[in-house]
Amino acid sequence: MLAAIELATRSVCLEMYIFQASGPGEEFRQALVSAAERGVRVRVLLDALGSGGLGEEYWRTLIRAGGEVRVFHRMRSRLAMVRNHRKMLLCDGRLAFVIGFNIGSVYDGDGVEAGWRDTGVLLEGAPAIELQRLFEEQYAVAAMRHPTSARLMRRREQPTSECGGEVRILPVTPGRGPSCMTTAIEEDLIHTARTGGEVVIVSPYLVPTPPLRRAFRKSVHNGVRLRLVVPLQNDVRISQLASRRLYAGFLRAGIDILEYTPQMLHAKVFLFPHAVYVGSSNLDPRSLHLNFEVMVRLTGERVLSQARADVADLVRRSRPVDPRQWARSRSWWMRLREEWAFWVLYRIDPWVTAWAAGSAR
């Protein structure tokens, strides 16, 4: 990504949820300043919650060099948690990085010996042009005092974009009901049940919607081998507790659960025999109902081969959850904590957010 910024000649657009000043953040800031100083149009779009701690002073050097910085969704209410969780880098309208990781020191490593493990994809050509269009729209929304696109009462989602036959871009927007991503996942589960094979879902925060959970169980009933890979070490304890509240039902349905052991697992990868999804979206209430996200669905054999190798390594470094041992390990106190976490995360959080977003407008 740093090399792409260095080689850019016309434009650099960085869209990021969390941008930390130290470590890799300083490298990126210097690269962006250098690009602006040589005449490249540089624009940075950050989220107010994820990166709001970086004030105008931090970006002054970039702005003086001609760069632009906007912050998405400065709401008056701190409870209004509709966020721009997308993570992209676009260079010259021809290169696009769609990634799961933020820019911060915790990602500085290989995800095995040190640092969080994550995944991204580099796209060229038509997909980059479409992603550039999505950036332009979100950048314009960030200039509005109260972005109308952040309303939760109904999902106002753009159609997915087919780019070159092997890439489908899935722009997820806040709202109720199924998104383009969950619809595509359910369709791919049905296709896999018909043709046979294994599906591996990698997600750091795994609290899927009831329809998606039903689709998981139905696919296994119809012969799909489904594996869920989650982190053993999780930075968001309440999310982990809520996720573990679902383990028993998943295990009874014949779904395999594996916990990645070396480091925090932050990757969002959904691997089917015929397609792989990569991007910013978790399978939790926040990503599925409250955030702006972007995922790409890829079907090219080259990228599928790379994805299979990466996921195989993830699985190899993960420990399976044994159904009998799991049942014996759950005390009443632990089950109560998991039930509470699930109730808060899935039942209360979206309603509080919807109310706060409405009152802040």
Polypeptide structure, described:
With 361 residues, this protein is an alpha/beta fold. The protein has 13 helices and 16 strands. It folds into 2 domains: 149 residues, Endonuclease, Chain A (2-Layer Sandwich), CATH 3.30.870.10; 180 residues, Endonuclease, Chain A (2-Layer Sandwich), CATH 3.30.870. Helix 6 packs parallel to helix 7. The radius of gyration is 20 Å and the shape is globular. The C terminus is likely disordered.
Let me know the largest β-sheet. 10 strands, mixed
Helicity, as a percent range: 40-55%
Low-pLDDT segments, ≥5 res: 148-153, 352-361
Number of domains: 2
CATH topology of the largest domain: Endonuclease, Chain A
How far apart, in Å, are the first and last alpha carbons? 36 Å
Tell me, what's the shape?
globular
Radius of gyration: 20 Å
CATH superfamily of the largest domain: Endonuclease Chain A
Q: Please write the string of helix (H) and strand (E) elements.
A: HEHEHHEEEEEHEEHEHEHHEEEHEHEHH
Instruction: Quote the average pLDDT.
Output: 89
Q: What structural class do the secondary elements suggest?
A: alpha/beta
CATH class assignment of the largest domain = Alpha Beta
Percent strand equals 15-25%
Tally the helices. 13
The total count of strands amounts to 16
What is the CATH-assigned architecture of the largest domain? 2-Layer Sandwich
Summarize it.
The chain has 361 residues and is of the alpha/beta class. It folds into 2 domains: 149 residues, Endonuclease Chain A (Endonuclease, Chain A, 2-Layer Sandwich), CATH 3.30.870; 180 residues, Endonuclease Chain A (Endonuclease, Chain A), CATH 3.30.870.10.
